[in-house]
Amino acid sequence: MNLTPWRSKRSDGSGTGRAETGLARLRSEINTLFDRFFEEPWRGLAEWPFGGRFGPRVDLSESEDSFCVTAELPGVDPKDVDISVSGNILTLRGEKRQERQEKGRNYYRTERQYGSFQRSIPLPSSVDSDKVEASYKDGVLTITLAKRAEARPKRITVKEG
Amino acid sequence: MAETAIRKREGEVSRVEHTRDRWTYCPNVDILEKDDELLVLADVPGVKAEDLDVEYENGLLTIHGKVEPRQDEEKTRFLRCEYGVGDFYRTFRIGEGIDHSRIHAELKNGVMELHLPKTDQVKPRKITVKVQ
C-alpha cells in the first residue's frame, strides 16, 4: 500500500481556489497552533483544579418569570454550599469534602474532584434577590431565581378601533 | 480492573449502544483498596437509588444509572448548557479474589459507594510468631 502525504483541505487548492505556497502554509499552520493554544486551555479553565478549586458545570434556563440554574455537585453536603446574588451575578461557593481520610490506602484511580469550588454566573437581567430558592437532591443543585417585574415580558393587547 | 468506557468530563460518551436515543456518560470514579475490600466511589448526580443498576456477570461488573431529563427540553429555553444529562454507564472487569456474592452498594447525594469484598484467600493475614 502506498502512503500519500497528508494535505489539509485548505492547501490542496480545491477549497479556496489558490494553492498555498510552502511558507504561507507554514505560517497558517503556526497561526492555527497559536489559536488552539490560546483557545483550548482557557476554555476548560472553569473546571481546572487550580489550587484545589474547581468550577462546577452549570445549566441555565429561562422561563417567563424566572431563571433556573442547575449544577451537578455529587457528594457535596448542602450545608457546605453558599449561594449569593448581587445584581445580576449569581455566585456559587462551597466545598466538596473528601468523605474520609484514607491515609495509606492504595488508590487505583482518582478521577473525582475534591476541594473548594466557586463559580459566578452572569444572568441576563437582574433578579429579585428575595425570591431565590435552592434545593439539593441526588447530587444536583437547583436554584430558581424570580425575575424582577420589569424584566418580565409584558403582554400588550391590541384594542379594536 | 479494566474499563470499557470514557469519562464524562471529557465530553465523550461510553461506547455501548443503547436503544434509547440519548447520551450515555461515564461516571468519574475513585477506586481504593482496603485490607478487606475494594471500594469504588462513583459520581452519579441525578440518579435515584431505584434507578441505579449494578450487575455482576462473568467477571464483568456493570454500573448503569438512569437519569430522567431535568427539564422539558422542548419547552425550556436554555441560555447555558455546560453539562449533558443522560444515563451513566461503566463496566469494570473484576479479577479473581472478589467475593461477588457479597458485593453491595449505597447511594448518597449523587455518589455511589460500591463495596467489593475480597475473598478470604487474598486478605492479608497476620501470622503470629510463637516464642519457643
Q: Which class do the helix and strand fractions of chain A yield?
A: mainly beta
How many beta-strand elements of chain B? 10
Strand order of the largest sheet of chain A: 1-2-8-7
CATH architecture of the domain at 23-69 and 80-117 in chain B: Sandwich
Main beta-sheet annotation of chain B = 5 strands, mixed
The number of helices of chain B is: 0
Strand fraction band of chain A?
35-45%
Shape of chain A: flat
User: What percent strand of chain B?
Assistant: 35-45%
Summarize the largest interface: chains and residue counts.
A-B, 35 and 32 residues
End-to-end Cα distance of chain A: 81 Å
Radius of gyration of chain B: 19 Å
Give the overall silhouette of chain B: elongated
By CATH, the topology of the domain at 23-69 and 80-117 in chain B is Immunoglobulin-like
How would you portray this structure in words?
The complex is a heterodimer of chains A (161) and B (132). Chain A is built from 1 helix and 8 strands. By secondary structure, chain A is mostly beta strands. Chain A starts with 21 loop residues before the first helix and ends in a 14-residue tail after the last strand. Mean pLDDT of chain A is 76; it is low at 9-17 and 40-52. Chain B has strands spanning 2-3, 24-25, 29-33, 37-43, 52-57, 60-65, 77-81, 87-93, 104-108, 111-117. In chain B, a hairpin with a 2-residue loop joins strand 5 and strand 6 (60-65). The model of chain B is unreliable at 1-13 (pLDDT under 50). The A-B interface holds A 47, 57-63, 67-68, 70, 72-77, 99, 102, 105-113, 121, 124, 136, 138-140, 142 and B 1, 7, 9, 28-34, 38, 41, 43-48, 70-71, 76-83, 108-111. Strand 1 of chain A pairs antiparallel with strand 7 of chain B.
